[in-house]
Amino acid sequence: MASKRQIHVGSVPIGGGAPVAVQTMTKTETANLAATMDQILQVADAGADIVRVAVPREQDVEALKTIVQRSPIPVIADIHFNHTLAIKAIEAGAHCVRINPGNIGGPEKVAEVVKVATAHSTPMRVGVNSGSLPKHLRDLEFDDPVEALVTAAIETVELMERLDFTDFKVSMKSTSVPNTIASNRRLSERIPYPLHLGVTEAGTKWSGSLKSAVGLGTLLADGIGDTIRISLSTFHAEEEVKVAWEILKALKLREKGPVLIACPTCGRLQFDMDTVVAEVERRLQAYEDPIEVSVLGCAVNGIGEARHADFGITGAKDMGMIYSKGEPLKKVPTGQLVDELFKEIDRYYAAGRKVQRDEHEAAAARAWLAENEDSTAITPEKLAAMEAEAARQDEEADGVLASMLTGSGAAPLDEEASPVAGRRFTRG
Ligand code: SF4
Question: Is the CB of 264 under 6 A from ligand 1?
Protein backbone atom coordinates (compact mmCIF):
# COMPACT_ATOMS: atom_id res chain seq x y z
CA MET A 1 0.00 0.00 0.00
CA ALA A 2 1.09 3.58 -0.55
CA SER A 3 3.00 5.18 2.29
CA LYS A 4 1.02 7.35 4.67
CA ARG A 5 3.83 9.65 5.70
CA GLN A 6 5.48 12.28 3.58
CA ILE A 7 8.94 13.79 3.79
CA HIS A 8 10.54 16.52 1.73
CA VAL A 9 13.96 16.22 0.12
CA GLY A 10 14.56 19.87 -0.63
CA SER A 11 11.40 20.92 -2.39
CA VAL A 12 10.51 17.42 -3.57
CA PRO A 13 7.77 15.64 -1.58
CA ILE A 14 8.29 11.91 -1.12
CA GLY A 15 5.43 9.65 -0.06
CA GLY A 16 2.01 10.44 1.30
CA GLY A 17 0.47 10.39 -2.17
CA ALA A 18 3.10 12.59 -3.87
CA PRO A 19 4.08 11.65 -7.44
CA VAL A 20 6.76 8.95 -7.52
CA ALA A 21 10.07 10.86 -7.53
CA VAL A 22 12.81 9.92 -9.97
CA GLN A 23 16.33 9.88 -8.66
CA THR A 24 19.71 8.79 -9.83
CA MET A 25 23.28 8.86 -8.61
CA THR A 26 26.27 10.58 -10.16
CA LYS A 27 29.06 8.32 -11.34
CA THR A 28 31.81 10.91 -11.03
CA GLU A 29 34.26 11.44 -8.19
CA THR A 30 32.25 13.95 -6.19
CA ALA A 31 35.35 16.02 -5.41
CA ASN A 32 35.72 16.60 -9.15
CA LEU A 33 33.39 19.55 -9.05
CA ALA A 34 33.28 20.30 -12.77
CA ALA A 35 32.56 16.69 -13.79
CA THR A 36 30.00 16.19 -11.02
CA MET A 37 28.13 19.41 -11.78
CA ASP A 38 28.17 18.53 -15.46
CA GLN A 39 26.53 15.19 -14.72
CA ILE A 40 24.02 16.72 -12.32
CA LEU A 41 22.94 19.17 -15.01
CA GLN A 42 22.57 16.31 -17.48
CA VAL A 43 20.42 14.19 -15.16
CA ALA A 44 18.31 17.20 -14.20
CA ASP A 45 17.80 17.90 -17.88
CA ALA A 46 16.77 14.27 -18.42
CA GLY A 47 14.11 14.66 -15.71
CA ALA A 48 15.70 13.58 -12.41
CA ASP A 49 13.85 15.08 -9.45
CA ILE A 50 16.68 14.33 -7.02
CA VAL A 51 20.34 13.38 -7.38
CA ARG A 52 22.58 11.45 -5.02
CA VAL A 53 26.34 11.84 -4.78
CA ALA A 54 28.83 9.52 -3.06
CA VAL A 55 30.68 11.11 -0.15
CA PRO A 56 33.45 8.71 0.88
CA ARG A 57 36.20 11.31 1.65
CA GLU A 58 36.75 14.71 3.24
CA GLN A 59 37.35 16.33 -0.17
CA ASP A 60 33.91 15.14 -1.28
CA VAL A 61 32.32 17.01 1.63
CA GLU A 62 34.21 20.13 0.55
CA ALA A 63 32.85 19.79 -3.00
CA LEU A 64 29.38 19.06 -1.61
CA LYS A 65 29.19 22.57 -0.13
CA THR A 66 29.34 24.03 -3.63
CA ILE A 67 27.29 21.29 -5.29
CA VAL A 68 24.23 21.84 -3.07
CA GLN A 69 24.29 25.52 -3.95
CA ARG A 70 24.69 25.09 -7.69
CA SER A 71 22.52 22.02 -8.27
CA PRO A 72 19.12 22.72 -9.82
CA ILE A 73 17.69 19.67 -8.00
CA PRO A 74 18.01 18.50 -4.36
CA VAL A 75 21.17 16.58 -3.50
CA ILE A 76 21.39 13.48 -1.29
CA ALA A 77 24.76 12.63 0.26
CA ASP A 78 25.45 8.90 0.16
CA ILE A 79 27.50 7.79 3.17
CA HIS A 80 28.80 4.41 4.24
CA PHE A 81 30.89 3.44 7.29
CA ASN A 82 31.80 6.94 8.47
CA HIS A 83 29.24 8.74 10.63
CA THR A 84 31.48 11.83 10.86
CA LEU A 85 31.15 12.31 7.11
CA ALA A 86 27.37 12.01 7.45
CA ILE A 87 27.39 14.79 10.04
CA LYS A 88 29.66 16.95 7.88
CA ALA A 89 27.46 16.33 4.84
CA ILE A 90 24.42 17.59 6.76
CA GLU A 91 26.39 20.64 7.86
CA ALA A 92 27.48 21.15 4.24
CA GLY A 93 23.82 21.60 3.33
CA ALA A 94 22.92 18.22 1.82
CA HIS A 95 19.15 18.04 1.29
CA CYS A 96 19.14 14.47 2.64
CA VAL A 97 21.69 11.92 3.81
CA ARG A 98 21.58 8.25 3.07
CA ILE A 99 23.10 5.94 5.66
CA ASN A 100 22.91 2.26 6.30
CA PRO A 101 22.61 1.97 10.11
CA GLY A 102 24.06 -1.54 9.85
CA ASN A 103 27.45 -0.30 8.68
CA ILE A 104 27.77 3.14 10.25
CA GLY A 105 29.21 1.93 13.57
CA GLY A 106 26.29 1.07 15.85
CA PRO A 107 23.23 2.79 17.38
CA GLU A 108 25.31 5.45 19.18
CA LYS A 109 26.78 6.68 15.90
CA VAL A 110 23.33 6.65 14.30
CA ALA A 111 22.10 8.74 17.25
CA GLU A 112 24.84 11.31 16.66
CA VAL A 113 23.86 11.65 13.00
CA VAL A 114 20.17 11.88 13.89
CA LYS A 115 20.88 14.63 16.41
CA VAL A 116 22.55 16.80 13.73
CA ALA A 117 19.91 15.92 11.13
CA THR A 118 17.18 17.02 13.57
CA ALA A 119 18.98 20.29 14.28
CA HIS A 120 19.23 21.03 10.53
CA SER A 121 15.78 19.62 9.63
CA THR A 122 17.53 17.30 7.20
CA PRO A 123 15.66 14.15 6.23
CA MET A 124 17.42 10.82 5.98
CA ARG A 125 17.21 7.68 3.95
CA VAL A 126 17.89 4.62 6.05
CA GLY A 127 18.22 1.27 4.50
CA VAL A 128 19.26 -2.29 4.62
CA ASN A 129 20.99 -4.38 2.03
CA SER A 130 20.67 -8.11 1.46
CA GLY A 131 24.44 -8.32 1.31
CA SER A 132 25.06 -6.87 4.78
CA LEU A 133 22.34 -8.02 7.17
CA PRO A 134 23.10 -7.98 10.91
CA LYS A 135 24.65 -11.16 12.36
CA HIS A 136 21.64 -12.03 14.52
CA LEU A 137 19.51 -12.39 11.38
CA ARG A 138 21.84 -14.83 9.60
CA ASP A 139 19.78 -17.93 10.52
CA LEU A 140 16.56 -16.26 9.49
CA GLU A 141 18.26 -15.14 6.28
CA PHE A 142 19.01 -18.78 5.51
CA ASP A 143 15.40 -19.89 6.14
CA ASP A 144 13.55 -16.85 4.82
CA PRO A 145 15.70 -14.18 3.15
CA VAL A 146 12.70 -11.94 2.55
CA GLU A 147 11.65 -11.94 6.20
CA ALA A 148 15.28 -11.33 7.24
CA LEU A 149 15.42 -8.24 5.02
CA VAL A 150 12.08 -6.96 6.31
CA THR A 151 13.05 -7.63 9.94
CA ALA A 152 16.31 -5.70 9.48
CA ALA A 153 14.39 -2.79 7.96
CA ILE A 154 11.86 -2.78 10.81
CA GLU A 155 14.64 -2.86 13.40
CA THR A 156 16.13 0.20 11.68
CA VAL A 157 12.76 1.96 11.74
CA GLU A 158 12.36 1.16 15.44
CA LEU A 159 15.81 2.56 16.15
CA MET A 160 14.92 5.83 14.41
CA GLU A 161 11.63 6.03 16.32
CA ARG A 162 13.44 5.44 19.64
CA LEU A 163 15.60 8.42 18.67
CA ASP A 164 12.42 10.45 18.11
CA PHE A 165 13.23 10.85 14.42
CA THR A 166 10.54 10.24 11.81
CA ASP A 167 11.79 12.40 8.92
CA PHE A 168 13.06 9.46 6.88
CA LYS A 169 12.38 7.09 4.06
CA VAL A 170 13.36 3.45 3.96
CA SER A 171 15.02 1.25 1.39
CA MET A 172 15.63 -2.47 1.20
CA LYS A 173 18.03 -3.47 -1.50
CA SER A 174 18.41 -6.90 -2.99
CA THR A 175 19.90 -8.15 -6.23
CA SER A 176 16.99 -10.59 -6.47
CA VAL A 177 13.92 -9.26 -8.23
CA PRO A 178 11.47 -11.69 -6.52
CA ASN A 179 12.92 -10.78 -3.10
CA THR A 180 12.74 -7.06 -3.89
CA ILE A 181 9.06 -7.45 -4.75
CA ALA A 182 8.18 -9.71 -1.80
CA SER A 183 10.11 -7.71 0.83
CA ASN A 184 8.70 -4.34 -0.21
CA ARG A 185 5.19 -5.75 -0.28
CA ARG A 186 5.60 -7.01 3.28
CA LEU A 187 7.30 -3.88 4.56
CA SER A 188 4.69 -1.57 3.03
CA GLU A 189 2.05 -3.37 5.12
CA ARG A 190 3.98 -2.82 8.33
CA ILE A 191 5.37 0.73 8.27
CA PRO A 192 3.90 4.11 7.27
CA TYR A 193 7.17 5.62 6.01
CA PRO A 194 7.96 6.37 2.35
CA LEU A 195 9.78 3.65 0.44
CA HIS A 196 12.73 4.10 -1.88
CA LEU A 197 12.70 1.35 -4.51
CA GLY A 198 15.58 -0.06 -6.48
CA VAL A 199 17.08 -3.33 -7.60
CA THR A 200 20.68 -3.17 -6.52
CA GLU A 201 23.43 -3.96 -9.04
CA ALA A 202 20.74 -4.57 -11.63
CA GLY A 203 23.18 -4.92 -14.52
CA THR A 204 23.83 -3.43 -17.92
CA LYS A 205 21.53 -0.99 -19.64
CA TRP A 206 19.68 -3.85 -21.31
CA SER A 207 19.35 -6.41 -18.51
CA GLY A 208 19.25 -3.83 -15.72
CA SER A 209 16.42 -1.93 -17.36
CA LEU A 210 14.40 -5.10 -17.74
CA LYS A 211 15.02 -6.29 -14.19
CA SER A 212 14.09 -2.88 -12.84
CA ALA A 213 11.00 -2.64 -15.02
CA VAL A 214 9.78 -6.02 -13.77
CA GLY A 215 10.69 -5.52 -10.10
CA LEU A 216 9.83 -1.88 -9.64
CA GLY A 217 6.99 -1.95 -12.14
CA THR A 218 5.25 -4.74 -10.23
CA LEU A 219 5.48 -2.81 -6.96
CA LEU A 220 4.52 0.53 -8.47
CA ALA A 221 1.51 -1.03 -10.16
CA ASP A 222 0.40 -2.12 -6.67
CA GLY A 223 0.83 1.45 -5.42
CA ILE A 224 4.01 0.60 -3.51
CA GLY A 225 7.04 2.89 -3.76
CA ASP A 226 7.51 6.63 -3.46
CA THR A 227 10.84 7.23 -5.15
CA ILE A 228 12.81 5.07 -7.56
CA ARG A 229 16.36 4.74 -8.74
CA ILE A 230 17.32 2.51 -11.65
CA SER A 231 20.83 1.14 -11.14
CA LEU A 232 22.62 0.55 -14.42
CA SER A 233 26.22 -0.27 -15.17
CA THR A 234 26.82 2.77 -17.32
CA PHE A 235 28.69 5.98 -16.75
CA HIS A 236 25.74 7.85 -18.23
CA ALA A 237 23.51 8.49 -15.23
CA GLU A 238 20.93 10.17 -17.46
CA GLU A 239 20.20 6.72 -18.95
CA GLU A 240 18.96 5.61 -15.51
CA VAL A 241 16.63 8.61 -15.45
CA LYS A 242 15.24 7.86 -18.89
CA VAL A 243 14.50 4.24 -17.92
CA ALA A 244 12.81 5.39 -14.69
CA TRP A 245 10.60 7.71 -16.68
CA GLU A 246 9.66 5.03 -19.18
CA ILE A 247 8.53 2.80 -16.30
CA LEU A 248 6.45 5.58 -14.75
CA LYS A 249 5.00 6.58 -18.11
CA ALA A 250 4.14 2.97 -19.00
CA LEU A 251 2.19 2.67 -15.74
CA LYS A 252 0.62 6.09 -16.33
CA LEU A 253 1.91 7.22 -12.94
CA ARG A 254 3.54 10.34 -14.36
CA GLU A 255 3.61 12.12 -17.67
CA LYS A 256 6.71 13.49 -19.29
CA GLY A 257 7.09 14.28 -22.94
CA PRO A 258 5.55 12.44 -25.87
CA VAL A 259 4.68 8.76 -25.87
CA LEU A 260 5.88 6.90 -28.94
CA ILE A 261 3.98 3.81 -30.06
CA ALA A 262 5.60 1.66 -32.72
CA CYS A 263 4.51 -1.68 -34.10
CA PRO A 264 6.95 -4.60 -33.99
CA THR A 265 6.71 -4.94 -37.81
CA CYS A 266 6.00 -8.15 -39.66
CA GLY A 267 5.86 -9.54 -43.18
CA ARG A 268 3.39 -6.83 -44.24
CA LEU A 269 6.00 -4.12 -43.84
CA GLN A 270 7.13 -2.50 -47.08
CA PHE A 271 9.32 0.39 -45.99
CA ASP A 272 12.36 1.11 -43.79
CA MET A 273 10.50 1.50 -40.53
CA ASP A 274 13.58 1.14 -38.31
CA THR A 275 15.01 4.39 -39.63
CA VAL A 276 11.66 6.15 -39.51
CA VAL A 277 10.99 5.16 -35.87
CA ALA A 278 14.48 6.22 -34.77
CA GLU A 279 14.09 9.59 -36.48
CA VAL A 280 10.62 10.17 -35.00
CA GLU A 281 11.93 9.28 -31.54
CA ARG A 282 14.88 11.65 -31.94
CA ARG A 283 12.72 14.58 -33.07
CA LEU A 284 10.11 14.01 -30.38
CA GLN A 285 12.74 14.74 -27.73
CA ALA A 286 12.29 18.42 -28.56
CA TYR A 287 8.66 18.32 -27.33
CA GLU A 288 7.55 18.44 -23.73
CA ASP A 289 3.84 17.83 -24.14
CA PRO A 290 2.68 14.23 -23.50
CA ILE A 291 1.21 13.71 -26.97
CA GLU A 292 0.95 10.18 -28.29
CA VAL A 293 2.55 9.50 -31.65
CA SER A 294 2.29 6.21 -33.42
CA VAL A 295 4.41 4.71 -36.17
CA LEU A 296 2.89 1.62 -37.66
CA GLY A 297 4.02 -0.49 -40.50
CA CYS A 298 0.94 -1.10 -42.59
CA ALA A 299 -1.91 1.07 -43.58
CA VAL A 300 -5.01 -0.83 -42.70
CA ASN A 301 -4.08 -2.42 -39.38
CA GLY A 302 -2.07 0.60 -38.43
CA ILE A 303 -4.81 3.16 -38.43
CA GLY A 304 -7.17 0.96 -36.43
CA GLU A 305 -4.65 -0.12 -33.84
CA ALA A 306 -3.51 3.41 -33.11
CA ARG A 307 -6.79 5.26 -33.31
CA HIS A 308 -6.20 6.84 -29.88
CA ALA A 309 -2.83 8.34 -30.97
CA ASP A 310 -2.80 12.11 -31.33
CA PHE A 311 -0.75 11.71 -34.50
CA GLY A 312 0.46 8.78 -36.43
CA ILE A 313 2.04 7.64 -39.64
CA THR A 314 1.60 4.44 -41.50
CA GLY A 315 3.47 3.51 -44.61
CA ALA A 316 3.42 1.33 -47.66
CA LYS A 317 5.95 0.95 -50.46
CA ASP A 318 5.94 4.41 -52.03
CA MET A 319 3.21 6.24 -50.19
CA GLY A 320 2.24 6.59 -46.59
CA MET A 321 -0.42 8.35 -44.62
CA ILE A 322 -0.54 10.76 -41.72
CA TYR A 323 -3.53 10.57 -39.43
CA SER A 324 -4.84 11.92 -36.18
CA LYS A 325 -7.07 10.00 -33.75
CA GLY A 326 -7.64 7.34 -36.40
CA GLU A 327 -8.77 9.82 -39.09
CA PRO A 328 -6.64 10.40 -42.19
CA LEU A 329 -5.02 13.82 -42.61
CA LYS A 330 -3.09 13.33 -45.83
CA LYS A 331 -1.08 10.92 -47.92
CA VAL A 332 2.55 11.68 -48.64
CA PRO A 333 5.47 9.95 -50.35
CA THR A 334 7.14 7.58 -47.87
CA GLY A 335 10.39 9.57 -47.95
CA GLN A 336 8.56 12.65 -46.63
CA LEU A 337 6.51 10.93 -43.94
CA VAL A 338 8.58 12.11 -40.99
CA ASP A 339 8.94 15.72 -42.16
CA GLU A 340 5.23 15.96 -42.90
CA LEU A 341 4.32 14.35 -39.58
CA PHE A 342 6.24 17.01 -37.68
CA LYS A 343 4.74 19.76 -39.86
CA GLU A 344 1.30 18.55 -38.77
CA ILE A 345 2.35 18.37 -35.12
CA ASP A 346 3.73 21.90 -35.27
CA ARG A 347 0.57 23.16 -36.99
CA TYR A 348 -1.43 21.55 -34.17
CA TYR A 349 0.51 23.47 -31.52
CA ALA A 350 0.49 26.70 -33.54
CA ALA A 351 -3.32 26.47 -33.65
CA GLY A 352 -3.57 26.05 -29.88
CA ARG A 353 -3.59 22.24 -29.80
CA LYS A 354 -6.15 21.89 -32.60
CA VAL A 355 -5.71 19.37 -35.39
CA GLN A 356 -5.67 21.15 -38.76
CA ARG A 357 -7.46 19.05 -41.35
CA ASP A 358 -7.68 19.92 -45.06
CA GLU A 359 -10.78 18.03 -46.24
CA HIS A 360 -9.48 17.74 -49.79
CA GLU A 361 -6.23 16.10 -48.64
CA ALA A 362 -8.05 13.95 -46.10
CA ALA A 363 -10.41 12.65 -48.81
CA ALA A 364 -7.44 11.76 -51.04
CA ALA A 365 -5.86 9.92 -48.10
CA ARG A 366 -9.09 8.01 -47.42
CA ALA A 367 -9.29 6.99 -51.07
CA TRP A 368 -5.66 5.81 -50.97
CA LEU A 369 -6.41 3.86 -47.81
CA ALA A 370 -9.42 2.17 -49.43
CA GLU A 371 -7.39 1.27 -52.54
CA ASN A 372 -4.64 -0.24 -50.44
CA GLU A 373 -6.86 -2.09 -48.04
CA ASP A 374 -5.83 -5.67 -47.44
CA SER A 375 -9.15 -7.46 -47.74
CA THR A 376 -7.88 -10.31 -45.56
CA ALA A 377 -6.78 -8.08 -42.67
CA ILE A 378 -8.88 -8.16 -39.50
CA THR A 379 -9.29 -4.53 -38.54
CA PRO A 380 -11.07 -3.38 -35.37
CA GLU A 381 -13.95 -2.18 -37.55
CA LYS A 382 -14.27 -5.59 -39.19
CA LEU A 383 -14.00 -7.30 -35.82
CA ALA A 384 -16.83 -5.19 -34.40
CA ALA A 385 -19.02 -5.94 -37.44
CA MET A 386 -18.32 -9.68 -37.14
CA GLU A 387 -19.17 -9.66 -33.44
CA ALA A 388 -22.42 -7.79 -34.09
CA GLU A 389 -23.36 -10.27 -36.82
CA ALA A 390 -22.57 -13.26 -34.57
CA ALA A 391 -24.73 -11.79 -31.79
CA ARG A 392 -27.59 -11.22 -34.24
CA GLN A 393 -27.40 -14.81 -35.46
CA ASP A 394 -27.40 -16.12 -31.87
CA GLU A 395 -30.52 -14.16 -31.09
CA GLU A 396 -32.23 -15.39 -34.22
CA ALA A 397 -31.34 -19.04 -33.46
CA ASP A 398 -32.60 -18.72 -29.87
CA GLY A 399 -35.87 -17.28 -31.15
CA VAL A 400 -36.40 -20.09 -33.70
CA LEU A 401 -35.65 -22.77 -31.11
CA ALA A 402 -38.02 -21.22 -28.59
CA SER A 403 -40.78 -21.15 -31.21
CA MET A 404 -40.22 -24.81 -32.04
CA LEU A 405 -40.35 -25.88 -28.39
CA THR A 406 -43.34 -23.82 -27.34
CA GLY A 407 -45.12 -23.52 -30.62
CA SER A 408 -45.16 -19.78 -30.22
CA GLY A 409 -42.87 -16.80 -30.60
CA ALA A 410 -41.80 -17.08 -26.93
CA ALA A 411 -38.86 -15.29 -25.45
CA PRO A 412 -35.43 -16.85 -26.04
CA LEU A 413 -34.45 -19.70 -23.71
CA ASP A 414 -31.81 -19.16 -21.14
CA GLU A 415 -28.26 -20.20 -21.95
CA GLU A 416 -28.28 -23.34 -19.78
CA ALA A 417 -31.36 -24.78 -21.45
CA SER A 418 -30.62 -23.90 -25.04
CA PRO A 419 -28.51 -26.26 -27.17
CA VAL A 420 -27.27 -23.30 -29.17
CA ALA A 421 -26.65 -21.18 -26.08
CA GLY A 422 -23.11 -20.14 -25.45
CA ARG A 423 -22.24 -20.00 -29.14
CA ARG A 424 -20.53 -16.70 -29.44
CA PHE A 425 -18.09 -15.20 -31.86
CA THR A 426 -14.59 -15.69 -30.56
CA ARG A 427 -11.46 -14.00 -31.76
CA GLY A 428 -9.14 -16.48 -33.39
S1 SF4 B 1 1.02 -2.67 -38.04
FE2 SF4 B 1 1.21 -3.86 -39.95
S3 SF4 B 1 3.42 -4.08 -40.25
FE4 SF4 B 1 3.14 -3.47 -38.11
S5 SF4 B 1 3.06 -5.44 -37.03
FE6 SF4 B 1 0.94 -4.84 -37.45
S7 SF4 B 1 0.44 -5.90 -39.36
FE8 SF4 B 1 2.70 -5.91 -39.19
Answer: yes
